[in-house]
Amino acid sequence: MESMVRKLYEIPGRIRKVDKNETLFAEGDEAQFFYIVRSGQICVSKSVCSGRTLSLRLARCGSILGEQVLCHVGDTYLFNAVAKTRAEVYEIRLDVLDDYLRRKPQLAYDMLTIISQHMRKQHTKFRDLILYGKKGALCSTLLRMAKSYGQQTAEGIFISVPFTNQELANFSATTRESLNRMLSELKREGVVESRGKHLLILDRAALEAAIECEGCDADCCNIE
């Protein structure tokens, strides 16, 4: 998949730097660009009128953004993309991308493969959020974060990126109050442990059992 994403750099574009908490694009903005993340992390989310936020992805180096509007030049973005850290992206105009994909069948096929993998990933994520209740959604989120940002240590899997409880709640489709309660339960059960602003997963098998984990590979089971 990484080799396919690298081929997209053949398309003329420009490098854009994004500061922490800066909005790359917002839901409802006219869609003009497609992005490849070169460094840093960018959170993709959906907001509703009540003020609730559902975080869908934490994109990092090699992730693509804005693919939902391909072949729909002039439409608006469906989600919000906000930098969690300082980041750098490769920005390609959608009309330029459309022209290249029409003229280069192999590049178009590679893009289709990337988007297909992305859809598979999102479907399994929504399955976990819907079928296994709030605690299952949190367990799924923790496993995906471990696949993307986990570092194996003698004690367990250390999630190298710090997340606030509100951010964990947004990824788990729940409220912060519910998240606090469920996280406390997992700590009492010896499944996870806090290390400052980071989490350490002590019992990965318990998280996997909570969502009847099918052992998906890292390309499918991640937070990106």
Topology:
Blueprint: H1 2-7, E1 14-18, E2 23-25, E3 33-39, E4 42-47, E5 53-59, E6 64-65, E7 80-83, E8 87-93, H2 94-103, H3 105-131, H4 133-149, E9 150-152, E10 157-159, H5 165-171, H6 176-188, E11 192-195, E12 198-201, H7 204-210
Antiparallel strand pairs: 1-8, 2-7, 3-6, 3-8, 4-5, 4-7, 9-10, 10-12, 11-12
Helix pairs in contact: 2-3, 3-4, 4-7, 5-6
Percent of residues in helical segments? 25-40%
> Spans with pLDDT under 50 lasting ≥5 residues?
none
Residue-averaged pLDDT: 91
Separation of the first and last Cα atoms: 13 Å
Tell me the strand percentage band. Answer: 15-25%
In terms of quaternary structure, the protein is: single chain
From the alpha-carbon coordinates, what is the Rg to the nearest angstrom?
Answer: 18 Å
Number of helices: 7
Overall structural class, as computed from helix and strand content, comes to alpha+beta
SSE order, one letter for each helix or strand = HEEEEEEEEHHHEEHHEEH
How does the major sheet shape up?
A: 4 strands, antiparallel
- The tally of beta strands, per DSSP, is 12
How do the strands of the widest beta sheet line up side by side?
1-8-3-6
Q: What's the overall geometry? A: globular
